[in-house]
User: What shape does this take?
Amino acid sequence: MQRGTTGKFDVSNTTGETVRAFVPAPLPPAPPLELTAPRQRLLERALLACGRLDGVSALLPDPDLFLYAYVRREAVLSSQIEGTQSSLSDLLLFELEQAPGVPFDDVVEVSNYVAAMEHGLARLREGFPLSNRLIREIHGKLLAKGRGAKMSPGEFRRSQNWIGGTRPGNAQYVPPPPHQVEPCMAALENFLHDKGFSALIKAALAHVQFETIHPFLDGNGRTGRLMIALILHHEGVLRQPLLYLSLYLKQHRAEYYRLLDTVRHQGDWEAWLDFIWEGVEQTAAGAVDTAHRLLALFAEDEKRIRDAARAAGSAMRAFVVLRRRPLATIDIIARESAMTFPTASKAIETLANLGITRELTGRQRNRIFAYDRYLAILNEGVQS
Assistant: This one.
Protein backbone atom coordinates (compact mmCIF):
# COMPACT_ATOMS: atom_id res chain seq x y z
CA MET A 1 0.00 0.00 0.00
CA GLN A 2 1.30 3.43 -0.91
CA ARG A 3 0.39 6.00 1.72
CA GLY A 4 2.57 8.82 0.47
CA THR A 5 5.42 10.17 2.55
CA THR A 6 5.62 8.76 6.08
CA GLY A 7 6.74 12.00 7.67
CA LYS A 8 7.46 15.65 7.02
CA PHE A 9 10.44 17.70 5.91
CA ASP A 10 12.16 20.17 8.19
CA VAL A 11 13.53 22.74 5.75
CA SER A 12 16.37 25.00 6.84
CA ASN A 13 19.17 27.07 5.38
CA THR A 14 22.71 26.04 6.23
CA THR A 15 25.81 27.73 4.81
CA GLY A 16 23.75 29.25 2.04
CA GLU A 17 21.99 26.09 0.83
CA THR A 18 18.60 24.56 1.49
CA VAL A 19 18.58 21.40 3.60
CA ARG A 20 15.49 19.15 3.67
CA ALA A 21 15.77 16.92 6.74
CA PHE A 22 13.15 14.15 6.99
CA VAL A 23 11.23 13.72 10.26
CA PRO A 24 9.30 10.42 10.35
CA ALA A 25 5.80 10.20 11.79
CA PRO A 26 5.55 8.03 14.91
CA LEU A 27 4.78 4.33 14.56
CA PRO A 28 2.50 2.50 13.91
CA PRO A 29 1.77 3.39 10.27
CA ALA A 30 -1.47 5.13 9.33
CA PRO A 31 -3.64 3.86 7.81
CA PRO A 32 -3.02 0.48 9.49
CA LEU A 33 -0.97 -2.25 7.88
CA GLU A 34 -2.68 -4.24 5.16
CA LEU A 35 -2.19 -7.84 6.28
CA THR A 36 -3.67 -9.70 3.33
CA ALA A 37 -4.10 -13.48 3.42
CA PRO A 38 -0.83 -14.12 1.46
CA ARG A 39 1.05 -11.73 3.73
CA GLN A 40 -0.44 -13.38 6.82
CA ARG A 41 0.72 -16.76 5.50
CA LEU A 42 4.22 -15.34 4.99
CA LEU A 43 4.22 -14.09 8.58
CA GLU A 44 3.10 -17.51 9.80
CA ARG A 45 5.86 -19.24 7.82
CA ALA A 46 8.44 -16.86 9.27
CA LEU A 47 7.18 -17.57 12.81
CA LEU A 48 7.19 -21.32 12.13
CA ALA A 49 10.78 -21.11 10.89
CA CYS A 50 11.74 -19.26 14.09
CA GLY A 51 10.02 -21.98 16.12
CA ARG A 52 12.04 -24.68 14.36
CA LEU A 53 15.23 -22.73 15.05
CA ASP A 54 14.29 -22.37 18.70
CA GLY A 55 13.69 -26.11 18.90
CA VAL A 56 16.86 -27.25 17.16
CA SER A 57 19.06 -25.08 19.38
CA ALA A 58 18.00 -27.29 22.31
CA LEU A 59 19.53 -30.32 20.55
CA LEU A 60 23.03 -28.84 20.57
CA PRO A 61 25.46 -30.24 23.17
CA ASP A 62 25.84 -26.78 24.67
CA PRO A 63 23.16 -24.13 23.88
CA ASP A 64 25.73 -21.37 24.28
CA LEU A 65 27.99 -23.06 21.72
CA PHE A 66 25.88 -22.05 18.74
CA LEU A 67 25.34 -18.58 20.19
CA TYR A 68 29.09 -18.00 20.63
CA ALA A 69 29.76 -18.87 17.01
CA TYR A 70 26.72 -17.18 15.50
CA VAL A 71 27.17 -13.88 17.31
CA ARG A 72 30.69 -13.69 15.92
CA ARG A 73 29.58 -14.65 12.44
CA GLU A 74 26.90 -11.95 12.57
CA ALA A 75 29.45 -9.42 13.83
CA VAL A 76 31.64 -10.05 10.79
CA LEU A 77 28.74 -9.90 8.32
CA SER A 78 27.14 -6.79 9.80
CA SER A 79 30.47 -5.00 9.82
CA GLN A 80 31.17 -6.07 6.22
CA ILE A 81 27.99 -4.26 5.16
CA GLU A 82 29.66 -1.11 6.51
CA GLY A 83 32.86 -1.81 4.55
CA THR A 84 35.17 -3.62 6.96
CA GLN A 85 37.31 -6.44 5.55
CA SER A 86 37.84 -8.64 8.60
CA SER A 87 37.11 -12.36 8.40
CA LEU A 88 35.77 -14.66 11.08
CA SER A 89 39.24 -16.12 11.52
CA ASP A 90 40.66 -12.59 11.98
CA LEU A 91 38.19 -12.00 14.80
CA LEU A 92 38.87 -15.32 16.52
CA LEU A 93 42.62 -14.75 16.28
CA PHE A 94 42.20 -11.22 17.64
CA GLU A 95 40.32 -12.62 20.62
CA LEU A 96 43.28 -14.92 21.25
CA GLU A 97 45.56 -11.85 21.17
CA GLN A 98 47.48 -13.66 18.45
CA ALA A 99 46.59 -11.57 15.43
CA PRO A 100 49.73 -10.25 13.70
CA GLY A 101 48.95 -8.82 10.29
CA VAL A 102 45.16 -8.68 10.55
CA PRO A 103 43.49 -5.32 9.68
CA PHE A 104 43.57 -3.89 13.19
CA ASP A 105 40.93 -1.14 12.87
CA ASP A 106 38.54 -3.47 11.09
CA VAL A 107 38.88 -6.33 13.56
CA VAL A 108 38.48 -3.95 16.51
CA GLU A 109 35.16 -2.80 15.05
CA VAL A 110 34.00 -6.39 14.70
CA SER A 111 35.14 -7.18 18.23
CA ASN A 112 33.19 -4.15 19.46
CA TYR A 113 30.08 -5.56 17.76
CA VAL A 114 30.43 -8.80 19.73
CA ALA A 115 30.81 -6.81 22.96
CA ALA A 116 27.73 -4.71 22.10
CA MET A 117 25.60 -7.77 21.39
CA GLU A 118 26.74 -9.58 24.52
CA HIS A 119 26.07 -6.49 26.62
CA GLY A 120 22.55 -6.15 25.23
CA LEU A 121 21.75 -9.81 25.85
CA ALA A 122 23.13 -9.67 29.39
CA ARG A 123 21.04 -6.59 30.21
CA LEU A 124 17.86 -8.17 28.86
CA ARG A 125 18.50 -11.30 30.93
CA GLU A 126 18.83 -9.08 34.00
CA GLY A 127 15.32 -7.84 33.29
CA PHE A 128 16.40 -4.46 31.92
CA PRO A 129 13.80 -3.09 29.49
CA LEU A 130 14.42 -2.73 25.78
CA SER A 131 14.70 1.06 25.82
CA ASN A 132 16.61 4.06 24.53
CA ARG A 133 18.92 3.80 27.50
CA LEU A 134 19.83 0.25 26.51
CA ILE A 135 20.22 1.27 22.84
CA ARG A 136 22.65 4.01 23.92
CA GLU A 137 24.56 1.54 26.10
CA ILE A 138 24.85 -0.89 23.19
CA HIS A 139 26.04 1.90 20.91
CA GLY A 140 28.60 2.90 23.53
CA LYS A 141 30.07 -0.60 23.41
CA LEU A 142 29.92 -0.65 19.61
CA LEU A 143 32.05 2.49 19.25
CA ALA A 144 34.14 2.11 22.40
CA LYS A 145 37.42 1.49 20.56
CA GLY A 146 38.80 2.01 17.07
CA ARG A 147 37.64 4.40 14.37
CA GLY A 148 34.31 5.23 16.03
CA ALA A 149 35.72 6.20 19.43
CA LYS A 150 35.59 9.92 18.57
CA MET A 151 32.01 9.78 17.26
CA SER A 152 30.21 10.29 20.60
CA PRO A 153 29.71 6.65 21.60
CA GLY A 154 26.47 6.12 23.52
CA GLU A 155 25.12 9.62 22.82
CA PHE A 156 22.42 10.76 20.44
CA ARG A 157 23.89 13.14 17.91
CA ARG A 158 23.87 16.91 18.38
CA SER A 159 24.71 17.76 14.78
CA GLN A 160 23.21 17.04 11.38
CA ASN A 161 24.26 13.87 9.60
CA TRP A 162 23.41 12.67 6.11
CA ILE A 163 23.66 9.65 3.81
CA GLY A 164 25.26 9.87 0.37
CA GLY A 165 26.64 13.06 -1.12
CA THR A 166 29.30 15.36 0.27
CA ARG A 167 27.07 17.59 2.40
CA PRO A 168 23.42 17.80 3.50
CA GLY A 169 22.52 19.93 0.49
CA ASN A 170 23.36 17.22 -2.06
CA ALA A 171 22.79 14.13 0.09
CA GLN A 172 20.69 11.15 -0.94
CA TYR A 173 18.95 11.23 2.44
CA VAL A 174 19.03 13.65 5.37
CA PRO A 175 17.72 12.33 8.73
CA PRO A 176 15.89 14.49 11.28
CA PRO A 177 17.68 17.62 12.53
CA PRO A 178 19.41 17.25 15.93
CA HIS A 179 16.59 18.83 17.97
CA GLN A 180 14.16 16.22 16.61
CA VAL A 181 16.25 13.16 17.47
CA GLU A 182 15.17 12.86 21.13
CA PRO A 183 11.41 13.20 20.39
CA CYS A 184 11.64 10.72 17.51
CA MET A 185 13.50 8.18 19.62
CA ALA A 186 11.07 8.66 22.52
CA ALA A 187 8.21 7.83 20.16
CA LEU A 188 10.10 4.75 18.93
CA GLU A 189 10.63 3.60 22.52
CA ASN A 190 6.88 3.91 23.13
CA PHE A 191 6.25 1.70 20.10
CA LEU A 192 8.72 -0.92 21.37
CA HIS A 193 6.57 -1.19 24.52
CA ASP A 194 3.30 -1.46 22.58
CA LYS A 195 1.74 -4.87 23.27
CA GLY A 196 -0.59 -4.65 20.28
CA PHE A 197 1.90 -5.89 17.69
CA SER A 198 3.55 -9.26 17.17
CA ALA A 199 7.31 -9.45 17.52
CA LEU A 200 8.02 -9.88 13.82
CA ILE A 201 5.92 -6.83 12.94
CA LYS A 202 7.52 -4.81 15.72
CA ALA A 203 11.07 -5.77 14.77
CA ALA A 204 10.48 -4.99 11.08
CA LEU A 205 8.89 -1.59 11.67
CA ALA A 206 11.31 -0.56 14.41
CA HIS A 207 14.34 -1.29 12.23
CA VAL A 208 13.15 1.03 9.46
CA GLN A 209 12.21 3.75 11.94
CA PHE A 210 15.58 3.56 13.68
CA GLU A 211 17.49 3.76 10.38
CA THR A 212 15.29 6.66 9.30
CA ILE A 213 15.99 8.60 12.50
CA HIS A 214 19.71 7.72 12.30
CA PRO A 215 20.18 8.96 15.88
CA PHE A 216 23.96 8.50 16.13
CA LEU A 217 26.88 10.05 14.31
CA ASP A 218 28.18 6.60 13.38
CA GLY A 219 27.20 2.96 13.84
CA ASN A 220 23.50 3.34 13.01
CA GLY A 221 23.37 0.41 10.59
CA ARG A 222 25.05 -2.02 12.96
CA THR A 223 22.95 -0.87 15.91
CA GLY A 224 19.76 -1.17 13.88
CA ARG A 225 20.58 -4.72 12.84
CA LEU A 226 21.40 -5.65 16.43
CA MET A 227 17.97 -4.36 17.44
CA ILE A 228 16.19 -6.95 15.29
CA ALA A 229 17.79 -9.88 17.15
CA LEU A 230 17.29 -8.22 20.54
CA ILE A 231 13.59 -7.51 19.89
CA LEU A 232 12.89 -11.10 18.84
CA HIS A 233 14.72 -12.39 21.91
CA HIS A 234 13.05 -9.90 24.25
CA GLU A 235 9.58 -10.69 22.85
CA GLY A 236 10.09 -14.42 23.44
CA VAL A 237 10.18 -15.54 19.82
CA LEU A 238 13.62 -17.08 20.40
CA ARG A 239 14.95 -18.23 23.76
CA GLN A 240 18.44 -17.95 22.31
CA PRO A 241 18.98 -14.94 20.01
CA LEU A 242 20.09 -16.97 17.02
CA LEU A 243 18.38 -15.12 14.16
CA TYR A 244 20.71 -12.68 12.43
CA LEU A 245 19.73 -11.11 9.12
CA SER A 246 23.02 -9.55 8.03
CA LEU A 247 23.87 -12.27 5.50
CA TYR A 248 20.43 -11.86 3.88
CA LEU A 249 20.76 -8.06 3.89
CA LYS A 250 24.30 -8.29 2.51
CA GLN A 251 23.12 -10.52 -0.33
CA HIS A 252 20.20 -8.18 -1.12
CA ARG A 253 21.83 -4.88 -0.19
CA ALA A 254 20.48 -2.84 -3.12
CA GLU A 255 16.91 -4.00 -2.50
CA TYR A 256 17.31 -3.34 1.24
CA TYR A 257 18.26 0.28 0.68
CA ARG A 258 15.63 0.73 -2.03
CA LEU A 259 12.86 -0.48 0.28
CA LEU A 260 13.99 1.81 3.11
CA ASP A 261 13.55 4.74 0.71
CA THR A 262 10.23 3.34 -0.54
CA VAL A 263 8.85 3.33 3.00
CA ARG A 264 9.98 6.90 3.62
CA HIS A 265 8.74 8.41 0.36
CA GLN A 266 5.76 6.23 -0.56
CA GLY A 267 4.68 4.72 2.75
CA ASP A 268 4.83 1.17 1.38
CA TRP A 269 5.43 -0.63 4.65
CA GLU A 270 3.90 -3.81 3.23
CA ALA A 271 6.66 -4.25 0.62
CA TRP A 272 9.20 -3.93 3.42
CA LEU A 273 7.35 -6.49 5.57
CA ASP A 274 7.31 -8.98 2.68
CA PHE A 275 11.05 -8.51 2.20
CA ILE A 276 12.03 -8.79 5.84
CA TRP A 277 9.75 -11.74 6.61
CA GLU A 278 11.11 -13.63 3.61
CA GLY A 279 14.53 -12.90 5.08
CA VAL A 280 13.47 -14.19 8.49
CA GLU A 281 12.11 -17.40 6.96
CA GLN A 282 15.23 -18.01 4.84
CA THR A 283 17.65 -17.07 7.61
CA ALA A 284 15.96 -19.22 10.24
CA ALA A 285 15.82 -22.19 7.85
CA GLY A 286 19.51 -21.67 7.05
CA ALA A 287 20.40 -21.56 10.74
CA VAL A 288 18.45 -24.79 11.35
CA ASP A 289 20.35 -26.45 8.49
CA THR A 290 23.65 -25.18 9.92
CA ALA A 291 22.76 -26.54 13.37
CA HIS A 292 21.96 -29.97 11.93
CA ARG A 293 25.21 -29.99 9.95
CA LEU A 294 27.18 -29.07 13.06
CA LEU A 295 25.48 -31.83 15.03
CA ALA A 296 26.38 -34.32 12.31
CA LEU A 297 29.97 -33.04 12.19
CA PHE A 298 30.37 -33.30 15.97
CA ALA A 299 28.92 -36.83 16.02
CA GLU A 300 31.23 -37.96 13.20
CA ASP A 301 34.33 -36.52 14.84
CA GLU A 302 33.39 -37.88 18.27
CA LYS A 303 33.19 -41.36 16.71
CA ARG A 304 36.61 -40.92 15.13
CA ILE A 305 38.04 -39.93 18.52
CA ARG A 306 36.45 -42.90 20.31
CA ASP A 307 37.61 -45.30 17.60
CA ALA A 308 41.17 -44.04 18.03
CA ALA A 309 41.06 -45.58 21.55
CA ARG A 310 44.51 -44.38 22.62
CA ALA A 311 44.27 -41.08 24.51
CA ALA A 312 40.58 -40.89 23.53
CA GLY A 313 39.58 -39.49 26.94
CA SER A 314 41.91 -36.49 26.87
CA ALA A 315 41.34 -35.96 23.15
CA MET A 316 37.59 -35.82 23.75
CA ARG A 317 38.05 -33.19 26.48
CA ALA A 318 40.14 -31.09 24.08
CA PHE A 319 37.50 -31.60 21.38
CA VAL A 320 34.78 -30.27 23.71
CA VAL A 321 36.79 -27.04 24.05
CA LEU A 322 37.16 -26.74 20.26
CA ARG A 323 33.41 -27.14 19.82
CA ARG A 324 33.03 -24.00 21.93
CA ARG A 325 35.84 -22.08 20.25
CA PRO A 326 37.10 -23.43 16.91
CA LEU A 327 40.41 -21.55 17.19
CA ALA A 328 42.40 -22.17 20.36
CA THR A 329 45.89 -22.39 21.83
CA ILE A 330 47.08 -25.31 23.93
CA ASP A 331 47.04 -23.00 26.97
CA ILE A 332 43.33 -22.32 26.42
CA ILE A 333 42.56 -25.99 25.85
CA ALA A 334 44.44 -26.94 29.02
CA ARG A 335 42.71 -24.28 31.10
CA GLU A 336 39.18 -24.91 29.83
CA SER A 337 39.43 -28.70 29.97
CA ALA A 338 41.20 -28.79 33.38
CA MET A 339 44.13 -30.74 31.91
CA THR A 340 47.83 -30.15 32.37
CA PHE A 341 49.68 -28.51 29.51
CA PRO A 342 51.51 -31.74 28.51
CA THR A 343 48.26 -33.72 28.53
CA ALA A 344 46.47 -31.04 26.49
CA SER A 345 49.39 -30.94 24.06
CA LYS A 346 49.19 -34.70 23.49
CA ALA A 347 45.42 -34.49 23.15
CA ILE A 348 45.57 -31.81 20.47
CA GLU A 349 48.24 -33.77 18.59
CA THR A 350 45.84 -36.74 18.58
CA LEU A 351 43.14 -34.53 17.06
CA ALA A 352 45.61 -33.22 14.47
CA ASN A 353 46.65 -36.77 13.53
CA LEU A 354 42.97 -37.63 13.05
CA GLY A 355 42.57 -34.67 10.69
CA ILE A 356 40.15 -32.89 13.01
CA THR A 357 42.39 -29.94 13.80
CA ARG A 358 45.17 -28.13 11.95
CA GLU A 359 48.04 -26.10 13.38
CA LEU A 360 48.12 -22.61 11.86
CA THR A 361 51.38 -20.95 12.88
CA GLY A 362 54.15 -23.43 12.04
CA ARG A 363 55.82 -22.40 15.30
CA GLN A 364 57.09 -24.61 18.10
CA ARG A 365 55.69 -22.31 20.80
CA ASN A 366 52.36 -20.47 21.17
CA ARG A 367 50.79 -22.69 18.54
CA ILE A 368 47.19 -22.14 17.41
CA PHE A 369 44.92 -24.97 16.32
CA ALA A 370 41.85 -24.65 14.12
CA TYR A 371 38.82 -26.93 13.92
CA ASP A 372 38.77 -26.51 10.15
CA ARG A 373 35.50 -28.16 9.14
CA TYR A 374 33.59 -26.28 11.84
CA LEU A 375 35.08 -22.98 10.65
CA ALA A 376 34.26 -23.85 7.04
CA ILE A 377 30.56 -24.19 7.91
CA LEU A 378 30.54 -20.91 9.82
CA ASN A 379 32.40 -19.12 7.03
CA GLU A 380 29.80 -19.84 4.36
CA GLY A 381 28.66 -16.49 3.04
CA VAL A 382 31.05 -14.52 5.24
CA GLN A 383 33.84 -14.41 2.68
CA SER A 384 31.75 -13.98 -0.46
